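Hello again, I could really use a second opinion on something today. I've dropped the whole record in just underneath, so have a look.
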Amino acid sequence: MKKRILLLVVLIFISVFIHYQNQHKILGYSHQINEIEQTLQSVKDINLDLVTYNSSLGSRERIQKLAYEHLGMTYPTDAGKVHNIVMNSRDETFCLVDFIVPSAEALTK
């Protein structure tokens, strides 16, 4: 009878130990997941800032300003004055500014 009681007490201690050990691991993993989610959110925010900055660098106004400052070129204010050129009877059209200023490709998109 003593052996059964001792065995029962040992099994209870082992089950309580395993329960709390698993709970501790679960809490540790949940903290890691929270840290990873915060890191992911911060990376997304940084990416959004960089995409916004990149868009402003490739904007029409920026390219017009650089073309005017460095090459002395002007660009018409309305898009109706820009003539499209068809190359080799393909479906793609190219803006004349693309031939003059390679970085002005963003103006047509």
Summary: The beta strands are 84-86, 93-95. The mean pLDDT is 77. The CA atoms of residues 71 and 101 lie 9 Å apart.
